[in-house]
Amino acid sequence: MAPVIETDRLLLRQFVVEDSLPLARILSDPETMRFYPAPLDDSGVLDWITRNQTRYQKDGHGLWAMVSKTTGELVGDSGLIRQEVDGNVEIEIGYHLRRDLWAKGLASEAARACRDYGFAQLKANRLISLIRPENLPSRRVAERIGMVLWKQVMWRGLPHDVFDVVRSAA
Ligand SMILES: CC(C)(COP(=O)(O)OP(=O)(O)OC[C@H]1O[C@@H](n2cnc3c(N)ncnc32)[C@H](O)[C@@H]1OP(=O)(O)O)[C@@H](O)C(=O)NCCC(=O)NCCS
């Protein structure tokens, strides 16, 4: 499948159902999912894929499969999803990465490319990331791509920091 985005080390492409096994290695890992209500089981992983396939159809974008150019493996996800925050629809940059690959700059590389895609292709004026205050690695990814703390909200029943970057500052 043709990639939507290519960076130095990564390809971002649409998810297919066959991604469920390598994706489960990421989304069923309790450590990776410690800021979420729970790690996903097999049907949760499949729902994740179909939810994003629906987003591709409806919005033209969603979370994409993150594939290593070196190994060809699916190593995470990153992309752009519509989220309602404080009654307004915002476009969020999301990212999840397999744990053995953390701290090599991969999520920042993917998120930076998604930021550029969001401004150039989606013509977004603002891009956000919803981050639990204690999720330091995610906060650092947001800061590395030029985001700053915009506001704090209760989102899905939990306090979240909303980081944003606006088009002119990117
Ligand atoms: C958030 C996540 C995607 C970051 O991926 P990554 O590729 O390791 O991030 P990067 O290598 O680009 O590094 C970003 C920053 O996080 C830091 N970092 C990475 N892993 C870390 C860890 N376990 N503890 C503390 N800081 C960490 C890096 O050192 C870097 O900070 P720096 O700029 O001060 O050096 C990854 O930790 C992850 O998958 N977490 C679980 C899923 C998640 O929480 N997603 C975000 C939801 S809002």
SS field, number of helical segments: 4
Q: What compounds are bound to the protein?
A: coenzyme A
Q: Return residue spans where pLDDT drops below 50 for at least 5 consecutive residues.
A: none
Number of structural units classed as domains: 1
- Spatially, the strands of the biggest sheet line up as 1-2-3-4-5-6-8-7
Q: What's the Cα radius of gyration?
A: 15 Å
- Which architecture per CATH? 3-Layer(aba) Sandwich
CATH topology: Aminopeptidase
The main sheet comes to: 8 strands, mixed
Q: Identify the CATH class.
A: Alpha Beta
Order of helices and strands: EEHHEEEHEHEE
Average pLDDT rating: 97
- Cα-to-Cα separation, first versus last residue: 29 Å
Label the overall shape. Answer: globular
Structural class comes to alpha+beta
Helix content: 25-40%
The strand count comes to 8
What name goes with the CATH superfamily?
Answer: Gcn5-related N-acetyltransferase (GNAT)
- The portion of residues forming beta strands comes to 25-35%
Fold and architecture overview:
The protein has 170 residues and is an alpha+beta fold. It has a single domain (5-169), classed as 3-Layer(aba) Sandwich (Aminopeptidase). It contains four helices and eight strands. An eight-stranded mixed sheet has the order 1-2-3-4-5-6-8-7, sandwiched between helices. Helix 1 (20-27) packs across helix 2 (42-59). The structure holds coenzyme A (COA). Coenzyme A (COA) is lined by residues 32, 35, 95-97, 102-108, 131, 135-138, 140-141, 144.
